[in-house]
C-alpha cells in the first residue's frame, strides 16, 4: 500500500510539473507574438514615412490606393524644382522618369493569429499536500489586470454578528421551541445522538453467538446459575406511566424495533365509564408526527396507546400512536414496514401509518346488518395473529367471535365464526394454519381449514371446521386460559396430520391459566393434556411461550414478577431456573406482576412486560444453544413416561 501511494504521488507531481512547463511555454509564446506585432507595426510606420518623403520630392499626392514604397535599396537622388532658373517649370531628369514609371511596391499584409490553450483536470489529480512550487502560477494570477486582493471579511462578519445577536425573552424562547422547524430538527438530531451514544449497548442486545462463551458478566438467578447476559428497561413516564402493557411484537423487518400496546391510564377520567363505540375520537387537527415526543393537548390522556421502541433508545419511543379506545393487541404489518395493526377494546381493527401522524388512518366498520348482526367485532378484541402466509389476519373477541380478514382490506372481515360463549386467547399453528382458542371457562377449541373446489372449477372456498377438545373437567384449566402457544419450528416433511395437528413435536402446544398451571397438549394423539406443571409460588401464570428456535425450550411468566425457563430435553419436572425463577424487576421488590412474554425470531432475546415497563432480556448462549438432537430427547422422555402412545416413532438421535 505504501509503494502504491508513493507511486501515485510521484505520478501526480510529474503531471503537475508537466502542466507548469506548458504554462511557461504558453507565456513565452505570448511574448514572441507580442514582439512580432511590434516589428510589423514599426515596418508599417517606416513605409508611411518613406511615401511622404517621396511625395514631397515629386510634389504629387500620394496614390489613393495602397501607399507606394520603394524597394529596400536607397532611393535615387532627385533635383529640387526651380534650381535652373526657368519660369517655374519643373525639369525632370531621366532618373525622375524612372521613379515615376516604376510601380509602387505593395506593403506585405501581416496576419496575426492568437489562440489559448487549456488543460482540463480533476481535483484528485493534484492533492493539496504537494511539494511543487506554485509561486510562479500565483504570481501570474496576481499580475493579471482586474485581479485585486480581497479584503479580510472576518472583522466585518464579527461586527455584523454583534449587531444581529440578541438575548431572547422567556416568551420568545418558548415560541421558538414550539415552532415546527425547531421541533423537527431537535427531534431528529436528538434521536441520532442517542442512537450513537447507545450503540455499544445495542451491540450487546443484538449479540450474535459464535458457539463459544463471550466471557461477559452475567446476571445470576437466585439459585446461583447464570441465564442472562444483559437487560434493559424501556419506559417513557409522560406517556406510559400508569398504563399496563397489553401486547408486544418484534418487527419482522428490523431486528432492533419492537411494538408495545398499552391500556388506558388508571388515572384516566373515562376509567369505569362505558367504552365509546369508535376507536377514533376527535383529537384534531392531527398534525403531530408520530416520531415527535412532544404531546398535544389531551393526547397524554388518550385511552389507547401504541409505541414503537428502538433497542438503542430505552427512554423514548421511535413512534407514538394514539387511539380513542384502549389497544388490547397489536402487530407489525408483515410486509409493509410503515404500517401498524391494532385491535381495540371497542371491537375495531385500526391501522396506523408512521408517515401520517399519530391517529389511525383506517378502522374497521361497526355497521350492523338488518338482522342486528355486525360485520366486525362488537366486543373487545383479545387476540390477533397473522395467518395464511402473511396475507391474512385472524382476530378473536371476548364474545367468542373469531373473524378472518385480508390484510389488503381491514374494513370488513371475509369470514366469521362463533366459538363457544367467550374467547380469551388465540394461537395458530404455522404448519397447518390450525387455530387453538382458549376461553374464560378453561375450555379449548381447534379450528382447522381445508380447501375444496367448487364445481370442478378453479375458484376456491374456505371450509373451516371447529372442534372442542374434550379433556374432561378434571383435566381442563380451572378458570381463564391466559395464553396459548404453538410451535414455530418447521416440522419434518414426513410428519403426518391428525385432527388438524402434526404428529410428533410439531403438534405440541402450551396453555397457561389462572389456576397456577401450565399444560402441554398434543391433540394428534390424545385430547387430554400430556403434562400439567404447577407454579411453586401458587401464583397465576400470565403467559407461556415456546422458543422459536429451540425445540424443547419454553418460558413462563408469573404474576409474582418472575419468569421460568424449561428445557424438556433435560427434565419434564423442574425448570432450569429452579423453583424461584428469574426476578425481572431490577429492584426485585416492586411487587409488579408480569403481563406478557415475546421471543425474538432468533430465540436469543425476550421481551417481558411488567405493568407499564418493558424489559429486554438477552439470554446466555448456554440456554438457547441446542446440544445435539434435543427434539428427539424430549419426545423420548414423553414416550418413556407413557404420555404418548407407541405409534410414535421418533427420529434417530444425532448424538
Main sheet, how many strands, which sense, barrel?
Answer: 5 strands, antiparallel
Give the strand order, joined by hyphens, for the main sheet: 1-2-31-30-29
Shape: elongated
Number of helices: 10
Helix amount: 10-25%
Task: Give the integer mean of the pLDDT values.
Answer: 76
Number of strands: 31
Low-confidence stretches: 60-102, 129-138, 141-151, 209-225, 274-285, 451-461, 650-655
Give the SSE map:
Blueprint: H1 2-58, H2 94-101, H3 135-143, H4 154-164, H5 170-178, H6 180-197, H7 199-205, E1 219-220, E2 226-234, H8 237-240, E3 245-250, E4 257-262, E5 304-310, E6 319-323, E7 327-332, E8 339-344, E9 349-353, E10 362-363, E11 381-387, E12 392-397, E13 401-406, E14 415-418, E15 425-429, E16 434-438, E17 444-453, E18 460-469, E19 481-486, E20 497-498, E21 501-502, E22 509-513, E23 517-522, E24 526-534, E25 541-546, E26 553-558, E27 562-567, E28 582-583, E29 594-599, E30 605-610, E31 613-619, H9 621-624, H10 630-640
Antiparallel strand pairs: 1-2, 2-31, 3-4, 4-5, 5-6, 7-8, 8-9, 9-10, 11-12, 12-13, 13-14, 15-16, 16-17, 17-18, 19-22, 20-21, 22-23, 23-24, 25-26, 26-27, 27-28, 29-30, 30-31
Care to describe what's here?
The protein is of the alpha+beta class and 655 residues long. 21% of the residues lie in helices and 27% in strands. The chain has ten helices and 31 strands. The strands form eight sheets. It has a five-stranded antiparallel beta sheet. It has a four-stranded antiparallel beta sheet with strand order 3-4-5-6, with no helix packed on it. A four-stranded antiparallel beta sheet has the order 7-8-9-10, with no helix packed on it. A hairpin with a 3-residue loop joins strand 23 and strand 24 (526-534). The longest helix is centred in the N-terminal third of the chain and has 57 residues, at 2-58. The two termini are 50 Å apart. The relative contact order is 0.07. Residues 60-102, 129-138, 141-151, 209-225, 274-285, 451-461 and 650-655 have low confidence and may be disordered.
Amino acid at each position: 500500500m505504501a509503494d502504491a501511494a508513493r507511486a501515485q504521488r510521484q505520478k501526480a507531481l510529474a503531471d503537475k510539473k508537466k502542466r507548469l512547463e506548458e504554462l511557461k511555454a504558453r507565456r513565452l509564446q505570448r511574448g514572441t507574438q507580442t514582439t512580432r506585432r511590434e516589428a510589423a507595426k514599426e515596418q508599417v510606420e517606416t513605409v508611411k514615412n518613406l511615401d511622404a518623403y517621396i511625395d514631397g520630392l515629386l510634389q504629387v499626392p500620394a496614390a489613393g490606393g495602397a501607399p507606394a514604397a520603394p524597394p529596400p535599396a536607397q532611393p535615387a537622388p532627385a533635383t529640387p524644382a526651380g534650381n535652373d532658373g526657368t519660369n517655374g517649370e519643373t525639369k525632370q531628369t531621366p532618373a525622375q522618369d524612372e521613379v515615376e514609371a516604376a510601380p509602387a511596391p505593395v506593403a506585405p499584409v501581416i496576419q496575426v493569429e492568437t489562440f489559448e490553450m487549456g488543460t482540463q483536470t480533476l481535483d484528485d489529480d493534484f492533492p493539496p499536500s504537494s511539494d511543487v512550487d506554485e509561486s510562479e502560477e500565483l504570481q501570474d494570477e496576481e499580475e493579471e489586470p482586474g485581479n485585486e486582493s480581497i479584503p479580510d471579511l472576518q472583522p466585518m462578519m464579527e461586527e455584523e454578528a454583534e449587531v444581529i445577536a440578541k438575548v431572547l425573552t422567556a416568551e420568545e424562547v418558548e415560541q421558538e421551541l414550539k415552532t415546527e422547524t425547531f421541533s423537527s430538527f431537535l427531534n431528529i438530531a436528538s434521536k441520532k445522538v442517542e442512537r450513537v451514544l447507545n450503540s455499544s449497548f445495542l451491540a450487546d442486545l443484538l449479540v450474535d453467538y459464535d458457539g463459544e462463551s463471550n466471557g461477559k458478566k452475567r446476571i445470576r438467578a437466585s439459585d446461583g446459575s447464570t441465564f442472562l447476559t444483559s437487560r434493559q428497561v424501556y419506559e417513557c413516564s409522560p406517556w406510559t406511566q400508569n398504563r399496563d402493557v397489553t401486547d408486544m411484537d418484534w418487527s419482522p423487518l428490523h431486528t432492533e424495533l419492537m411494538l408495545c400496546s398499552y391500556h388506558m391510564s388508571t388515572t384516566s377520567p373515562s376509567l369505569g365509564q362505558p367504552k365509546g363505540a369508535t376507536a377514533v375520537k376527535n383529537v384534531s387537527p392531527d398534525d403531530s408526527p408520530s416520531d415527535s415526543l412532544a404531546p398535544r393537548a389531551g393526547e397524554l390522556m388518550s385511552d389507547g396507546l401504541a409505541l414503537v421502541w428502538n433497542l438503542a433508545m430505552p427512554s423514548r419511543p421511535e413512534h407514538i400512536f394514539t387511539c380513542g379506545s384502549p389497544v388490547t393487541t397489536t402487530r407489525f404489518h408483515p410486509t409493509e414496514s410503515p404500517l401498524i395493526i391494532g385491535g381495540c377494546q371497542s371491537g375495531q381493527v385500526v391501522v396506523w401509518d408512521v408517515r401520517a401522524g399519530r391517529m389511525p388512518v383506517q378502522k374497521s366498520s361497526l355497521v350492523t346488518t338488518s338482522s342486528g348482526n355486525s360485520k366486525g367485532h362488537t366486543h373487545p378484541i383479545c387476540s390477533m395473529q397473522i395467518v395464511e402466509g402473511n396475507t391474512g389476519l385472524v382476530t378473536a373477541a371476548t364474545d367468542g367471535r373469531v373473524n378472518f380478514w385480508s390484510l389488503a382490506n381491514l374494513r370488513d372481515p371475509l369470514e366469521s365464526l362463533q366459538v363457544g360463549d367467550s374467547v380469551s386467547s388465540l394461537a395458530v399453528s404455522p404448519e397447518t394454519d390450525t387455530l387453538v382458542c382458549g376461553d374464560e371457562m378453561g375450555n379449548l377449541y381447534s379450528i382447522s381449514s381445508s380447501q375444496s373446489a367448487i364445481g370442478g372449477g378453479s375458484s376456491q372456498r374456505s371450509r373451516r371446521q371447529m372442534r372442542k377438545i374434550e379433556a374432561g373437567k378434571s383435566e381442563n384449566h380451572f378458570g381463564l386460559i391466559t395464553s396459548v402457544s404453538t410451535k414455530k419450528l418447521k416440522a419434518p416433511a414426513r410428519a403426518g396430520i391428525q385432527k388438524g395437528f402434526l404428529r410428533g413435536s410439531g403438534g405440541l402446544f402450551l396453555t397457561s391459566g389462572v389456576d397456577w398451571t401450565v399444560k402441554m397438549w398434543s391433540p394428534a394423539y390424545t385430547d387430554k393434556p400430556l403434562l400439567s406443571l404447577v407454579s411453586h409460588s401458587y401464583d397465576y401464570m400470565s403467559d407461556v411461550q415456546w422458543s422459536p428456535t429451540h425445540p424443547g425450550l419454553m418460558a413462563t411468566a408469573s404474576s409474582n414478577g418472575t419468569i421460568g425457563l424449561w428445557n424438556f430435553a433435560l427434565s419434564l419436572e423442574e425448570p432450569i431456573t429452579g423453583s424461584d425463577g428469574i426476578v425481572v424487576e431490577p429492584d426485585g421488590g416492586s411487587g409488579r406482576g408480569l403481563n406478557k412474554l415475546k421471543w425474538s425470531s432468533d430465540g436469543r432475546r425476550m421481551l417481558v412486560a411488567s405493568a407499564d415497563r418493558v424489559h429486554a432480556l438477552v439470554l446466555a448462549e448456554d440456554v438457547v444453544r441446542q446440544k445435539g438432537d434435543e427434539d428427539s430427547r424430549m419426545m423420548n422422555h414423553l414416550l418413556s413416561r407413557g404420555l404418548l402412545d407407541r405409534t410414535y416413532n421418533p427420529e434417530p438421535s444425532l448424538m
